[in-house]
Amino acid sequence: MNNGWNKIIYKIWSPIYDTFFNSGAFLRARKKLFCEIEFSIGEHILFAGVGTGADLSFVNASNLNITAIDLSPDMLDRATEKFEGSTIEFLQMDVQDMAFPDASFDVVVASLILSVVPDADRCLAEIARVLKPNGKIIIFDKFASKKQRLPWLRNMLRPVVKVFGTDIGLRFETLFDRHCETLQIQSNEPIMLKGLYRKIILRKQ
Q1: pLDDT, averaged across the chain
Q2: The pTM is what?
Q3: Which domain holds residue 11?
Q4: Residue 14's domain is classified under what CATH number?
Q5: Res 9 pLDDT > 90
């Protein structure tokens, strides 16, 4: 995966993305994720890799200062159209190399982004950088189990599936170990498909 290829892939995905990833089990998971999260009025929230804006429907934008970024102009256009007239600021930006100053946000929402960026390690480091001390990262994503080896079929298909813009073998625990001095795990729970998709809350130390 690389940024240029991802732009092409998500140009293709943009017209049909909500059909697959904002309906059925995905919609139920998003609702469950956000009904359990409380935001404080006036907080600065970053939606990192906002896609078509699927998560934005579950927050009260009028009470929050929301910035939403995405690398794909096509996905971002879809989100902007949905929330035209809102106070949300939409920006085309690479989550692996953000233009924001350090400690800009109280909360960062990272839904289905760590598994699709070319470099998940760099992505998480950038998210931590723009987060204020004691701020939260809300993650909804798919991760390989930490308790067992990657099944041979998934391991074989991993490079093939990456061509379509996602990594089916990313281990959160391995990723987190490289950031444990900066971040702290508050919760790590299965949310969908028997734990393939998880809800993870991190706090910046």
Answers
A1: 91
A2: 0.91
A3: 3-204
A4: 3.40.50.150
A5: no
